[in-house]
C-alpha cells in the first residue's frame, strides 16, 4: 500500500486495501483452481460458489428479506434507468422526484415509456436539497415512485425512507450510498446500484427487487437482457455475468462484515462527513453547497465562491497527495467523495490542507 494517495473520486473510487491485496494474492491461482477468477467459466463449480457466496453475503449485510431477488447485471445504473419503467409499468404511470442529474436522466428514460409525473424537483435551487416527505406529490395510482437516494454530483442524500401511497412501490437508485448504512429493504420495491463506489469495480450493477414486482415485462417486444424475471429465473446467468466484479464485490462484503457491517460503515461515514461539515460550518472561507438537512455522508460539496481559487485548490490539493477534489462541472467548486474505503486519516489530511489553503488565500 506504499505510494497510494487519498483518492476522493466520485466513482470509480477507492477500494479497501485488504480487498486489493486479496485480489493480488489470488490473481494467478484462485484457491488452487490453477487459474484467475477472470479466466474461469461462469458455469464452473468454483465460480458458482463465488456468486452464491456473494449473494449470501449481500443478503446478510443488508438483511434482505426472503421475498426479494438479487440480480448481478451489466450496463451500469444507467441501463436500469430504462429497465425500471420497462419492468414496472403496468398502467403506464410513474412518479419521479428529480433531485439531480442522475434522477433527471432516469426521468428522461422513463418518459419514453409512459406518463411520468414530477413528484418533486429541486432544479430551481440547482439541486441543493432533497424533498421532505410533505413536499412529495405522489399519485396514488402510479406504478412506482422513483428517487435517487444519494445525489453524487450535488452532495445531497435522503435522511429518511419516503413513504408512498398504499400499493405504490418505492424505487431507489443507491449507486452512491449503498452499504454505507443499514437500510430497511422491506420499505422498497426496488433498490439498485452501480458497483463502482461502495461495492467494487465498475461493471456490476446490483438490483434488489421484490418478487411480486417481477413478471410484467413485455418480453415479446422488449430485449430479453433487461427483463429482471429472466435474470432472476437464471440466477443472473442468462448470459455471462460480470464475473470478476462479482468476485470483488464478494471480497468487499467480507471486508464490510469484518469491519462490523453496515452499522459500522454508518458510524465511520458519520465521523468522516461530520469532520468535514463541522469544519465547513466553523469558518467562512469555504461555503458548503448542500442545504444542511440534505447533506450527503458520501459526497461533500463546497466552494470558495471564486472560480480561480477553486481551480487553484484542485491543483494544489493534487500536489499534496489528494486526487479528484474538483467538483462536477455542473456545480463547480470542490467535492470530496468519502465512500466506505476512505480512511479517516484521508479526511484529516484534507482538512489540514483546507486550513492551510484558506490561510494562504484569504
Ligand atoms: N446514479 C448515481 C447516483 C450515480 O452516481 C451514477 C454515476 N456513477 C449513476 C447513477 C450512473 O451510473 P453508471 O455510470 O454506472 O451508469
Instruction: Report strand %.
Output: 15-25%
Bound molecules: 4'-deoxy-4'-aminopyridoxal-5'-phosphate
> What Rg is obtained from the alpha carbons, in whole angstroms?
21 Å
Secondary structure tally, helices:
9
Specify the CATH architecture of the largest domain: 3-Layer(aba) Sandwich
Mean pLDDT score, rounded? 97
Catalytic activity: 4-(phosphooxy)-L-threonine + 2-oxoglutarate = (R)-3-hydroxy-2-oxo-4-phosphooxybutanoate + L-glutamate; O-phospho-L-serine + 2-oxoglutarate = 3-phosphooxypyruvate + L-glutamate
Binding site for pyridoxal 5'-phosphate: 77-78, 102, 152, 173, 196, 239-240
Modified residues (N6-(pyridoxal phosphate)lysine): 197
Keywords: Amino-acid biosynthesis, Aminotransferase, Cytoplasm, Pyridoxal phosphate, Serine biosynthesis, Transferase
Concise synopsis of the structure shown:
Its cofactor is pyridoxal 5'-phosphate. The protein has helices at 17-25, 45-61, 76-88, 101-111, 228-233, 243-259, 261-281, 307-319, 344-361; strands spanning 6-7, 68-73, 93-98, 115-121, 145-148, 150-151, 156-157, 170-173, 190-194, 205-210, 287-288, 299-303, 322-323, 334-337. The chain is α/β, with parallel strands linked by helices and 362 residues long.
Task: Note down, in words, how this protein is organized.
The chain has 362 residues and is an alpha/beta fold. The protein has two domains: 242 residues, Type I PLP-dependent aspartate aminotransferase-like (Major domain) (Aspartate Aminotransferase, domain 2), CATH 3.40.640; 102 residues, Aspartate Aminotransferase, domain 1, CATH 3.90.1150. It has nine helices and 14 strands. A seven-stranded mixed β-sheet has the order 2-10-9-8-5-3-4. The longest helix is centred in the last third of the chain and has 21 residues. The two termini are 36 Å apart. The model has no long low-confidence stretch (mean pLDDT 97). The site of 4'-deoxy-4'-aminopyridoxal-5'-phosphate has 11 residues, from helix 3.
Amino acid at each position: 500500500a506504499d505510494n497510494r494517495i487519498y483518492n476522493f473520486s466520485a466513482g470509480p473510487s477507492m477500494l479497501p486495501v485488504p480487498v486489493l491485496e486479496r485480489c493480488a494474492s489470488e490473481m494467478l491461482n484462485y484457491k488452487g483452481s490453477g487459474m484467475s477468477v477472470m479466466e474461469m467459466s461462469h458455469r464452473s463449480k468454483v465460480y458458482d460458489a463465488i456468486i452464491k457466496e456473494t449473494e449470501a453475503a449481500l443478503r446478510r449485510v443488508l438483511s434482505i428479506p426472503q421475498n426479494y431477488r438479487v440480480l448481478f447485471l451489466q450496463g451500469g445504473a444507467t441501463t436500469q434507468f430504462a429497465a425500471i419503467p420497462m419492468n414496472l409499468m403496468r398502467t403506464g404511470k410513474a412518479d419521479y422526484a428529480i433531485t439531480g442529474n442522475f434522477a433527471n436522466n432516469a426521468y428522461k428514460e422513463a418518459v419514453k415509456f409512459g406518463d411520468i409525473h414530477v413528484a418533486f424537483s429541486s432544479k430551481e435551487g440547482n439541486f441543493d436539497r432533497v424533498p421532505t416527505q410533505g413536499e412529495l406529490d405522489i399519485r396514488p395510482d402510479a406504478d412506482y415512485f422513483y428517487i435517487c437516494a444519494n445525489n453524487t454530483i450535488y452532495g445531497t442524500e435522503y435522511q429518511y425512507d419516503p413513504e408512498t401511497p398504499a400499493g405504490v412501490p418505492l424505487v431507489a437508485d443507491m449507486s452512491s450510498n449503498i452499504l454505507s448504512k443499514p437500510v430497511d429493504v422491506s420499505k422498497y420495491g426496488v433498490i439498485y446500484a452501480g458497483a463502482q463506489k461502495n461495492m467494487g469495480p465498475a461493471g456490476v450493477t446490483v438490483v434488489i427487487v421484490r418478487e411480486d414486482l417481477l413478471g410484467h415485462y413485455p418480453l415479446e417486444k422488449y430485449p430479453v437482457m433487461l427483463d429482471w424475471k429472466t435474470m432472476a429465473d437464471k440466477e443472473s446467468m442468462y448470459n455471462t455475468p460480470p464475473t470478476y466484479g462479482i468476485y470483488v464485490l464478494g471480497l468487499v462484503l467480507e471486508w464490510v462484515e469484518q469491519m462490523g457491517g453496515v452499522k459500522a460503515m454508518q458510524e465511520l461515514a458519520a465521523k468522516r462527513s461530520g469532520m468535514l461539515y463541522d469544519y465547513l460550518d466553523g469558518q467562512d472561507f469555504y461555503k458548503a453547497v448542500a442545504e444542511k438537512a440534505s447533506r450527503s455522508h458520501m459526497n461533500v460539496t463546497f466552494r470558495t465562491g471564486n472560480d480561480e481559487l477553486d481551480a487553484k485548490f484542485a491543483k494544489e490539493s493534487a500536489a499534496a497527495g489528494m486526487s479528484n477534489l474538483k467538483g462536477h462541472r455542473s456545480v463547480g467548486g470542490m467535492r470530496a467523495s468519502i465512500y466506505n474505503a476512505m480512511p479517516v486519516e484521508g479526511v484529516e489530511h484534507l482538512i489540514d490542507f483546507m486550513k492551510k489553503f484558506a490561510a494562504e488565500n484569504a
